[in-house]
């Protein structure tokens, strides 16, 4: 009988596209780095946990995205909220307000199959403990107090259009300062006097900090943010790249450059970035000539150093690859209800001839098993060699004897 969960894993591995399902079951490789990440997740758990971040680097196809998917499952099992996004032209890291909106759409609460969480705010009343806590936090612990006026207005308005507009702000469709002040005056009959005038290009760290606090108040043990395809920062203009490095520092070094609480951030980047971008485009020299102020310049420089010093994912050892292939064999057996006995060392030999990348090896192994399943033969491997197989029908001879 076919196991459809196993089939889902095999289909993901066959496609070469990393998935959280595969990451859940193929997490035993690279035990050193997964142990390090697991220890950090334990350190940041709860309101007293210190936020942290790291950069991982690796060659194309060596398992960076797979590792992020593994961390996704690790964090969920620790009762943490998880956000997972890939940087792109639509999500450039020099513009955190665009990153924030994409991140909101890709945030998963534990035991939730679909992203999203702001629906849990819809029934909160002004007297709810969560409401009181968020008002106290946004009034005193952020760079601006815009979110205090927004939360207070959201909690007290009876107008469904206003409620929708204010909730949309928390989702990244930001309400203008003038509109928010107008709503606040209508509800409370008093002026909303900001301590600092909010701008989305300068104060987005307030929104990320607010989310990290909100997750703790909702009863979760922290927040894990996973950024893939970080190397796309290298395609930005020089000024945009430097600003992106400065923004990265608020996640990598939150105790110095942001107010994130119990948050762990990981950036996955190609191993050649230091050579192809930082060295080739003279990023350290560019910082000295940039218009960034001293603190922002320091933050960007620390990010560049973190990228250069990032621990690179090494190719799996033969023993680790053998372990992956044995697990793959078990999933294939379950996925197709196929009872077979194949020496996976023979499959490993075929994968070695197809390429050195981990992704290529896994896809080659699946292809090999596909061919054996359909044709009883793949390369030098034949099912018939593993036992006597007869294709003669088991029926009596009906010919008449003379």
In short:
This protein is of the alpha/beta class. It has 18 helices and 8 strands. Helix 1 (4-15) crosses helix 18 (358-375).
- Helix/strand-derived class? alpha/beta
Average pLDDT figure: 87
Distance between the termini: 48 Å
Number of helices: 18
Spatial strand arrangement across the major sheet: 3-2-4-5-1-6
Report the biggest beta sheet as strand number plus sense, adding barrel if it closes.
6 strands, mixed
User: Rg to the nearest angstrom?
Assistant: 27 Å
Number of strands: 8
Quaternary state of this entry equals single chain
Order of SSEs: HHHEHEHEHHHHHEHHEHHHEHHHEE
The gross shape turns out to be: globular
Strand content: 5-15%
What are the segments in which pLDDT stays under 50 over at least 5 consecutive residues? 384-402
Helix content: 40-55%
Describe the fold and architecture.
Helices cover 52% and strands 9% of the residues. It has 18 helices and 8 strands. It has a 6-stranded mixed β-sheet. A two-stranded antiparallel ribbon has the order 7-8. Helix 3 packs parallel to helix 4 (64-77). The protein is globular and about 80 Å long.
């Amino acid at each position: 009988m076919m196991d459809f969960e196993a089939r889902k894993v095999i289909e993901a591995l066959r496609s070469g596209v990393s998935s959280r399902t595969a990451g859940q079951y193929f997490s035993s490789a690279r035990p050193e780095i997964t142990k390090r990440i697991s220890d950090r997740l334990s350190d940041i758990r709860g309101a007293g946990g210190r936020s942290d971040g790291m950069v991982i680097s690796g060659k194309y196809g060596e398992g960076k995205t797979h590792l992020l998917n593994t961390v996704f499952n690790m964090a969920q099992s620790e009762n943490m909220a998880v956000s997972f996004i890939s940087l792109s032209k639509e999500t450039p890291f020099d513009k955190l307000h665009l990153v924030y909106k994409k991140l909101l759409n890709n945030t998963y609460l534990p035991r939730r199959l679909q992203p999203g969480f702001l629906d849990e705010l819809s029934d909160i009343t002004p007297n709810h403990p969560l409401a009181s806590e968020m008002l106290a936090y946004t009034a005193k612990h952020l760079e601006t107090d815009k979110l205090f006026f927004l939360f207070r207005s959201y909690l007290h308005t009876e107008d469904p259009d206003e409620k929708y507009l204010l909730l949309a702000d928390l989702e990244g469709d930001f309400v203008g300062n003038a509109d928010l002040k107008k709503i606040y005056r209508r509800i409370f009959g008093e002026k909303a006097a900001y301590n600092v005038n909010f701008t989305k290009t300068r104060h987005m760290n307030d929104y990320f900090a607010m989310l990290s606090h909100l997750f703790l108040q909702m009863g979760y043990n922290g927040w894990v943010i996973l950024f893939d395809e970080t190397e796309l920062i290298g395609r930005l203009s020089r000024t945009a790249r430097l600003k992106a490095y400065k923004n990265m520092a608020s996640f990598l070094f939150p105790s110095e450059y942001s107010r994130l609480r119990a948050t762990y951030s990981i950036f996955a980047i190609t191993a050649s970035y230091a050579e192809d971008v930082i060295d080739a485009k003279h990023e350290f020299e560019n910082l000295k000539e940039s218009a960034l102020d001293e603190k922002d310049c320091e933050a960007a420089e620390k990010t560049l150093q973190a990228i250069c010093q990032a621990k690179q994912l090494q190719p799996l050892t033969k023993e680790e690859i053998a372990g992956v292939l044995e697990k793959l064999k078990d999933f294939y057996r379950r996925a197709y209800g196929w009872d077979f006995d194949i020496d996976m060392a023979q499959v490993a030999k075929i994968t070695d001839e197809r390429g050195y990348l981990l992704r290529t090896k896994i896809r080659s192994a699946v292809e090999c098993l596909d061919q054996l399943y359909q044709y009883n033969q793949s390369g030098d491997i034949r099912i018939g060699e593993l036992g006597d197989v007869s294709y003669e029908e088991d029926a009596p001879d009906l010919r008449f004897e003379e």
